[in-house]
Design a protein that fits this description.
The chain is of the alpha/beta class. The chain has eleven helices and 19 strands. It has one domain: 3-Layer(bba) Sandwich (FAD/NAD(P)-binding domain), CATH 3.50.50. The chain binds flavin-adenine dinucleotide (FAD).
Length: about 425
Amino acid sequence: MADHLFAPGFKTDPYWWDAAPRPSVVEAALPASIDVAIVGSGHTGLSAALTLVRAGRSVAILEAEVPGYGASTRNAGYVGRTLYAKYPKLEKTFGAEKAVALTREGVTAHEYIVRLVEQEQLDCRFEYRGRFIAAESQAHYDKMAHEFEALRRVAPMEGHMVSRADQRTEIGSDYYYGGLVLMGTGALHPGLYQSALMDRVAKAGATIFGKTPVTAIRREGTGFEITTSRGRIAARDVIVATNGYTGAPTPHLRRRVIPVAAYMIATEPLGENGVRRLLPTRRTMIDSKTNIFWARPSPDGKSLLFGARTGIDDGDLSRKAILLHGHMTEVYPELANVRMTHCWTGNMGFTFDLLPHAGVVDGVHFATGYCGVGLPMGTWLGHKSALKVLGDKGGRTPFDDLPFPTRPFYNGRPWFLGPLLRYYAWRDRRR
Ligand SMILES: Cc1cc2nc3c(=O)[nH]c(=O)nc-3n(C[C@H](O)[C@H](O)[C@H](O)COP(=O)(O)OP(=O)(O)OC[C@H]3O[C@@H](n4cnc5c(N)ncnc54)[C@H](O)[C@@H]3O)c2cc1C
C-alpha cells in the first residue's frame, strides 16, 4: 500500500468540514403542524426555506442525517453558468425556443446565487476568476470551440479558446490539448456557503431537525401528514429536496433520479507558489473527458483539490484516494510524492435526460436532478419551488413542464452505472 501518500491525520470526511464542521442536531420536539415541511437540508432545501420564512411561512426542515450531510457540503464549489446538457443536443431534442429557454435558465441560476451571496453577505470565499475547460484531444478542442460558438449565440457567455501551445498560461501541465476559458464563473467554499445559509435560515425563524429521516408522506385533507423517526408532523405543503439521496418515501422521484457518487482528494499544503504552478490563473479546471478530471485551488490557495473516477466503486476511500492520486499525477507528474490530507465522496443526482427537473407530483413540490451543477441550480430551483408554494407566478421555470423519464425496472439502484462509467474511463484513456 502506498502509505507514504497519506498525510498524518488523513481524513475521509470532506475537506470543507474542517472550516465548517457539521452543526449539532436540534433536540427540540417536532411541532405538531407547520406551513411547509422541507425534506433535505442541502442548497435546495435551505434556499427554499429562506424564501418561505422571509415571506412569513413557518418552516421545518427535516434531515435524515446531520444538517448539510448531503452533496451540498461535499461538492467542488464551482459556480457555473451552464447546464450539464450541451446546447446543440438540447436544440436537437426540444427545438430552438425551448433549448434557448433551458440554457438561459443556467445563466439565471448563476446570477441568482451571485446576488444571494452578495445581498445576504454570505461569507464563503467566493472568487470570480473563470474556469479552464481542458481539451482531452484535438478533436475535443475543435468540438469545444464549435459548441461554445453555438452557446454564446443564445446565452450571455464570455470566453476564449487557448491553444495547446499557449496552455501553460492556464495549467502547469502538457497533458491537455488546450481548451476554453469560460469567464463569468467562479468558485466558493461550499461548507461555508452552506453554514452561512443555515445561519440566515435559522435567524429568519426556520428550524432544521437533523437525524430526522422522513419515512412517509401522505395526503391528509388539504395538506399532508409526514411521518418521521421522531414522530408525525402536519404540513400544508411539502418540498422534497433530496436529490442524489432520494429514497423510498418518494417512489416517483426515486424511479427518476440516478444517484452518482463523485470523489475528491485534497493535497497537503503546497504553498501559494506551488498551487500557482499548477493553476497559474487560480481558475477552476475541468476537462472534456466523459468521466471528467477536475481540479481547483483550495480557497486559501495553498492546496490542490482534485476529483475523478465518478460513479466507479473502487472499494474504501483509502483505496480510492490512491487511484485519484494516480490520475492527479497523470496531469501533474510533479505531485507524485505529494501527500493527501482528505478523500471524500458524495452523491450527485442525475436524470435519464441529463436535465434538472422541478414541479409538483401528487401535490408534493420537488426540485432535483441537477447533473453536477446543483450549487447554482439547486439554490435557484429551491427558491423557485418556494415561490410556487407561495402561489407566485415567478415560480415557473422552463424545467417545470419537461417529461421526466424513467426506465423499465429502474427503482433508484443504478446497477448499470459502474460498468458504463468504467467503459467511459477506458475509452477516455484511448485518446
Ligand atoms: C464531489 C461532488 C462535487 C460536486 N461539484 C459540484 C460543483 O462544483 N458545482 C456544482 O454546481 N455542483 C456540484 N456538485 C453537485 C451539487 O453538490 C449538488 O447538485 C447539490 O449539492 C444538490 O443539493 P441538494 O440540496 O439538492 O441535495 P443534497 O445537498 O445532496 O441534500 C439532500 C439531503 O436530503 C437528505 N435526505 C434524503 N432522504 C431524506 C429523508 N427521507 N428524510 C430526510 N432527509 C433526507 C440527505 O441526507 C441529504 O442531506 C458536486 C457533487 C459532488 C458529490
